[in-house]
Write a structure and sequence with these properties.
Blueprint: H1 3-6, H2 13-17, H3 24-33, H4 56-66, H5 69-178, H6 182-194
């Protein structure tokens, strides 16, 4: 048998007081994040070594009055083991959170770099849009001048076509009368009056 098997089991304070055993992980996280462990209300257990209202003097005097020297030594050994375990857990929490912090810092740095790149791209896009807008205004101005010229030329062309019809009207009328197509001659005459 090993020394640990030969020694009697050392009770913790919850066994002495009859209180339920502490929830170590919850208490460890609660102490790390500063949250209150007690959900039962305003009562504070001053003998709960993991609690916020722990009373060292009362705990030690309870151990001294209820335990023998070998039991006290075993409790001391158990406490050293618990402290090492808690230190290990705390180091693990710090390590995990440190990695998360480094990862978050890297992510923020990448986001900042991307935002700066986007700002540069937006500046370039804004300059391009301004030059396109200027070119569009120039084209519109040029087209409006040409449009008015084209409208004027269309008016002249229309007037020339009408004049051409009027110039040809006497010849057509004479041809219709000679061919005895009087209805056609009347149609040409009416068309000429509308012009």
């Amino acid at each position: 048998r090993t020394a640990a098997e030969a020694a009697p089991a050392v009770p913790n304070m919850s066994e002495i007081t009859g209180a339920p055993p502490p929830r170590r992980a919850r208490n460890l996280l609660s102490s790390y994040y500063g949250a209150s462990v007690s959900s039962s209300g305003p009562e504070v257990d001053d003998l709960n070594i993991d609690g916020g209202g722990f009373n060292v003097d009362k705990y030690v005097s309870g151990l001294l009055s209820h335990k023998s020297l070998p039991e006290l030594m075993q409790r001391g050994i158990a406490m050293v083991s618990e402290i090492k375990s808690l230190d290990s857990d705390m180091q693990m929490l710090v390590y995990e959170n440190y990695n998360k912090f480094i990862s978050a810092t890297d992510t923020i740095r990448q986001m900042k770099q991307r935002v700066e790149e986007m700002e540069v791209s937006m500046g370039q896009l804004e300059g391009t849009m301004e030059s396109i807008s200027g070119a569009s205004d120039s084209v519109n101005s040029s087209l409006s001048e040409r449009r008015s010229q084209l409208e004027g030329l269309n008016g002249v062309k229309s007037n020339l076509a009408k004049l051409q019809l009027l110039m040809e009207l006497p010849t057509r009328l004479q041809a219709c009368v000679d061919a005895k197509q009087y209805e056609e001659a009347v149609r040409h005459h009416r068309r000429g009056q509308r012009l």
